[in-house]
Write a structure and sequence with these properties.
Length: about 250
């Protein structure tokens, strides 16, 4: 059964028309709360879960990222959708963004695959006792874990007093972290269970994105530029350094 995620796409002060994405409803701008300037230095953070088998990691991660950007990518869009695990999710048709999402999803999939391969080879060489081999058999369905994060920034004029520093600085106003768990089913029964869990987790995550964007609006900055995409973004895989100054891949 194909399920469709139904969600509005909020646009606070957005100069472009809202897309009519199937059953995605327009939300009245009158319901949006003004930007809270008191908390602009602290980004709003959201944590999401993803569960997949090795063959589906890229598709699941891409689907979640496109769902996030559907609500946070402000240029004018032509409504599109794609099916992931029989769930219809929004798709942002932008070549640059799609290339970045594809690149990061593939990078995460490679790292998870390398982690699983290293884990299996290490344990295969070290386990010789029958009890240890049995324990390995019981835990072989466990794949790897990783995360991919998205940050959105606003450009602000850098203020300087003594040094008279000029130019723009980018301040993060929202962060999404997707925690990815990979399972490796070995039997038909395990594959069926994993497939069901994948579908349920993806549906739950997609609906959580909808809930988050509808419940948290005070932190969204006003659009103060005529640029097609007023808010730069970054997508990072397994980022170790939490400092905003070390972020990469900003567009």
């Amino acid at each position: 059964m194909i399920q469709t995620i139904v969600a509005p796409r909020p646009r606070e002060g957005h100069p472009y028309p809202l897309p009519n994405f199937g059953n995605f409803h327009k939300q009245s701008r009158a319901n949006l709360t003004p930007y809270n300037t008191m908390d602009q230095q602290t980004p709003q953070e959201f944590i999401l879960e993803a569960f997949a088998d090795p063959a589906s990691v890229r598709d699941v991660v891409r689907g979640i990222l496109h769902t996030i950007f559907f609500h946070r990518f402000f240029p004018s869009l032509t409504p599109r959708s794609r099916e992931v695990l029989d769930i219809t999710l929004p798709f942002v048709e932008d070549a640059e963004l799609d290339t970045m999402i594809e690149k990061r999803a593939a990078e995460l999939a490679r790292e998870l695959d390398a982690e699983r391969t290293t884990h299996v080879h290490t344990h295969s060489r070290s386990l010789s006792h029958p009890v240890q081999q049995q324990q390995q058999q019981q835990s072989r369905g466990s794949g790897g874990r990783g995360h991919i994060s998205v940050q959105f920034f606003e450009k602000k004029r850098r203020k300087g007093w003594l040094l008279r520093v000029s130019g723009d600085e980018e301040i993060c106003w929202e962060s999404w972290t997707i925690k990815v768990t990979v399972a490796e089913p070995r039997t038909d029964s395990e594959r069926a269970k994993v497939r069901k869990a994948m579908e349920q987790t993806l549906l739950t995550t997609a609906m959580k994105i909808v809930t988050c964007v509808n419940s948290h609006k005070d932190h969204i900055p006003p659009i103060t530029t005529s640029e097609s995409n007023p808010f730069p973004y970054s997508i990072n895989v397994n980022q170790k350094d939490a400092s905003w100054a070390t972020r990469i891949g900003i567009y």
